[in-house]
Specification:
mainly alpha, globular
Length: 204
Protein backbone atom coordinates (compact mmCIF):
# COMPACT_ATOMS: atom_id res chain seq x y z
CA UNK A 1 0.00 0.00 0.00
CA UNK A 2 2.82 2.38 0.88
CA UNK A 3 4.52 1.69 -2.46
CA UNK A 4 1.33 2.43 -4.38
CA UNK A 5 0.95 5.73 -2.57
CA UNK A 6 4.59 6.49 -3.28
CA UNK A 7 4.22 5.84 -7.01
CA UNK A 8 1.11 8.00 -7.34
CA UNK A 9 2.56 10.85 -5.28
CA UNK A 10 5.89 10.71 -7.13
CA UNK A 11 4.18 10.82 -10.54
CA UNK A 12 2.18 13.90 -9.55
CA UNK A 13 5.34 15.61 -8.33
CA UNK A 14 7.44 14.73 -11.37
CA UNK A 15 4.88 15.85 -13.98
CA UNK A 16 4.35 19.23 -12.30
CA UNK A 17 6.22 22.04 -14.10
CA UNK A 18 9.58 23.00 -12.64
CA UNK A 19 13.16 23.86 -13.51
CA UNK A 20 13.96 20.42 -14.91
CA UNK A 21 10.91 20.37 -17.15
CA UNK A 22 11.75 23.81 -18.50
CA UNK A 23 15.35 22.83 -19.29
CA UNK A 24 14.28 19.60 -21.01
CA UNK A 25 11.52 21.24 -23.04
CA UNK A 26 13.91 23.97 -24.15
CA UNK A 27 16.55 21.44 -25.19
CA UNK A 28 14.04 19.38 -27.16
CA UNK A 29 12.63 22.44 -28.89
CA UNK A 30 15.91 23.92 -30.03
CA UNK A 31 18.20 20.89 -30.42
CA UNK A 32 16.08 17.80 -30.93
CA UNK A 33 15.13 14.56 -29.28
CA UNK A 34 18.61 13.30 -28.41
CA UNK A 35 19.59 16.53 -26.68
CA UNK A 36 16.32 16.48 -24.76
CA UNK A 37 17.08 13.01 -23.43
CA UNK A 38 20.61 14.15 -22.49
CA UNK A 39 19.10 17.12 -20.62
CA UNK A 40 16.65 14.79 -18.86
CA UNK A 41 19.58 12.65 -17.74
CA UNK A 42 21.31 15.77 -16.41
CA UNK A 43 18.20 16.79 -14.47
CA UNK A 44 18.02 13.31 -12.97
CA UNK A 45 21.68 13.44 -11.93
CA UNK A 46 21.03 16.81 -10.29
CA UNK A 47 18.33 15.26 -8.10
CA UNK A 48 20.53 12.43 -6.79
CA UNK A 49 22.68 14.53 -4.37
CA UNK A 50 19.52 15.77 -2.66
CA UNK A 51 18.29 12.20 -2.26
CA UNK A 52 21.60 11.12 -0.75
CA UNK A 53 21.64 14.16 1.52
CA UNK A 54 18.19 13.32 2.82
CA UNK A 55 19.09 9.69 3.37
CA UNK A 56 22.35 10.38 5.20
CA UNK A 57 20.93 13.18 7.30
CA UNK A 58 22.92 15.98 5.70
CA UNK A 59 19.71 17.68 4.64
CA UNK A 60 18.69 17.96 8.28
CA UNK A 61 21.95 19.80 9.00
CA UNK A 62 21.35 22.12 6.06
CA UNK A 63 17.90 23.12 7.24
CA UNK A 64 18.94 23.72 10.84
CA UNK A 65 21.32 26.42 9.62
CA UNK A 66 19.36 29.44 8.33
CA UNK A 67 22.54 31.05 7.00
CA UNK A 68 23.61 28.01 5.00
CA UNK A 69 20.08 27.43 3.71
CA UNK A 70 19.77 31.06 2.59
CA UNK A 71 23.18 30.96 0.91
CA UNK A 72 22.31 27.90 -1.17
CA UNK A 73 18.79 29.13 -1.85
CA UNK A 74 19.78 32.53 -3.18
CA UNK A 75 22.67 31.08 -5.16
CA UNK A 76 20.07 28.94 -6.90
CA UNK A 77 17.81 31.97 -7.41
CA UNK A 78 20.68 33.92 -8.96
CA UNK A 79 21.46 31.04 -11.31
CA UNK A 80 17.84 30.77 -12.47
CA UNK A 81 17.64 34.51 -13.08
CA UNK A 82 20.91 34.32 -15.01
CA UNK A 83 19.40 31.60 -17.22
CA UNK A 84 16.34 33.81 -17.79
CA UNK A 85 18.56 36.75 -18.79
CA UNK A 86 20.66 34.50 -21.05
CA UNK A 87 17.52 33.23 -22.78
CA UNK A 88 16.37 36.77 -23.60
CA UNK A 89 19.84 37.99 -24.52
CA UNK A 90 20.71 35.16 -26.92
CA UNK A 91 18.16 35.40 -29.72
CA UNK A 92 19.64 32.27 -31.33
CA UNK A 93 18.88 30.16 -28.25
CA UNK A 94 15.54 29.00 -29.65
CA UNK A 95 16.12 29.60 -33.32
CA UNK A 96 15.96 27.36 -36.37
CA UNK A 97 19.44 28.40 -37.47
CA UNK A 98 21.14 28.04 -34.10
CA UNK A 99 23.15 24.91 -34.95
CA UNK A 100 26.40 26.77 -34.59
CA UNK A 101 25.52 27.96 -31.09
CA UNK A 102 23.81 24.80 -29.88
CA UNK A 103 24.88 23.60 -26.47
CA UNK A 104 27.05 20.49 -26.41
CA UNK A 105 25.76 17.44 -24.61
CA UNK A 106 28.29 18.09 -21.85
CA UNK A 107 27.07 21.67 -21.47
CA UNK A 108 23.45 20.50 -21.37
CA UNK A 109 24.23 18.04 -18.59
CA UNK A 110 26.18 20.66 -16.64
CA UNK A 111 23.34 23.19 -16.96
CA UNK A 112 20.72 20.69 -15.81
CA UNK A 113 22.81 19.30 -12.94
CA UNK A 114 23.72 22.75 -11.59
CA UNK A 115 20.12 23.99 -11.78
CA UNK A 116 18.84 21.09 -9.66
CA UNK A 117 21.77 20.95 -7.24
CA UNK A 118 21.25 24.65 -6.42
CA UNK A 119 17.60 24.10 -5.55
CA UNK A 120 17.54 23.52 -1.75
CA UNK A 121 13.80 22.83 -1.85
CA UNK A 122 14.67 19.42 -3.31
CA UNK A 123 16.65 18.37 -0.24
CA UNK A 124 13.88 19.67 2.02
CA UNK A 125 11.34 17.80 -0.09
CA UNK A 126 13.17 14.48 0.12
CA UNK A 127 13.82 14.92 3.83
CA UNK A 128 10.07 15.22 4.45
CA UNK A 129 8.90 12.99 1.59
CA UNK A 130 10.83 9.71 1.76
CA UNK A 131 10.26 8.78 5.45
CA UNK A 132 6.48 8.86 4.93
CA UNK A 133 6.71 5.74 2.78
CA UNK A 134 8.89 3.68 5.11
CA UNK A 135 7.00 1.17 7.25
CA UNK A 136 7.55 1.47 10.99
CA UNK A 137 8.52 -2.22 11.13
CA UNK A 138 11.03 -1.93 8.28
CA UNK A 139 14.28 -3.51 9.49
CA UNK A 140 16.28 -1.91 6.67
CA UNK A 141 14.93 1.66 6.35
CA UNK A 142 18.05 3.01 4.64
CA UNK A 143 17.88 0.33 1.96
CA UNK A 144 14.17 1.02 1.44
CA UNK A 145 14.83 4.74 1.06
CA UNK A 146 17.53 4.02 -1.52
CA UNK A 147 15.12 1.85 -3.50
CA UNK A 148 12.40 4.51 -3.40
CA UNK A 149 14.94 7.14 -4.45
CA UNK A 150 16.01 5.02 -7.42
CA UNK A 151 12.37 4.64 -8.48
CA UNK A 152 11.82 8.39 -8.20
CA UNK A 153 14.97 9.08 -10.24
CA UNK A 154 13.90 6.64 -12.97
CA UNK A 155 10.45 8.20 -13.08
CA UNK A 156 12.01 11.66 -13.37
CA UNK A 157 14.16 10.59 -16.31
CA UNK A 158 11.26 8.97 -18.18
CA UNK A 159 8.80 11.85 -17.71
CA UNK A 160 11.34 14.55 -18.56
CA UNK A 161 12.45 12.60 -21.64
CA UNK A 162 8.83 12.44 -22.82
CA UNK A 163 8.54 16.19 -22.30
CA UNK A 164 11.63 16.76 -24.44
CA UNK A 165 10.57 14.31 -27.17
CA UNK A 166 7.21 16.06 -27.43
CA UNK A 167 8.92 19.45 -27.73
CA UNK A 168 11.21 18.08 -30.44
CA UNK A 169 8.24 16.63 -32.37
CA UNK A 170 6.46 19.99 -32.58
CA UNK A 171 9.59 22.14 -33.06
CA UNK A 172 9.36 22.13 -36.87
CA UNK A 173 5.97 23.85 -36.64
CA UNK A 174 7.22 26.77 -34.60
CA UNK A 175 10.91 27.31 -35.42
CA UNK A 176 10.12 29.07 -38.69
CA UNK A 177 7.71 31.53 -37.09
CA UNK A 178 9.67 34.53 -35.76
CA UNK A 179 6.81 35.90 -33.68
CA UNK A 180 6.08 32.52 -32.15
CA UNK A 181 9.76 31.95 -31.36
CA UNK A 182 9.95 35.37 -29.70
CA UNK A 183 6.95 34.42 -27.59
CA UNK A 184 8.52 31.08 -26.67
CA UNK A 185 11.82 32.75 -25.74
CA UNK A 186 9.98 35.18 -23.45
CA UNK A 187 7.90 32.33 -22.02
CA UNK A 188 11.02 30.32 -21.19
CA UNK A 189 12.66 33.36 -19.61
CA UNK A 190 9.56 34.16 -17.56
CA UNK A 191 9.26 30.54 -16.48
CA UNK A 192 12.84 30.56 -15.18
CA UNK A 193 12.13 33.88 -13.43
CA UNK A 194 8.92 32.55 -11.87
CA UNK A 195 10.69 29.46 -10.53
CA UNK A 196 13.47 31.68 -9.16
CA UNK A 197 11.00 34.00 -7.41
CA UNK A 198 9.08 31.04 -5.98
CA UNK A 199 12.33 29.62 -4.66
CA UNK A 200 13.33 32.99 -3.17
CA UNK A 201 10.00 33.21 -1.33
CA UNK A 202 10.24 29.69 0.07
CA UNK A 203 10.42 29.62 3.82
CA UNK A 204 12.83 27.45 5.73
Amino acid sequence: MLYNDFLVTSLLIVISPGTGAIITLSAGLRQGKRSAIIAAAGCTLGVLPHMLAAITGLAALLHTSPLLFSLVKFTGVAYLLFMAWQTLRDKTLLSADCLGSALSHRALIQQAVVANILNPKLSLFFLAFLPQFIATRDVHPTQSMLILSAIFAAMTFVVFSLYGIFASAVSHRVLGDHRMMTGIRWSVALAFTAVGIRLAMAVQ
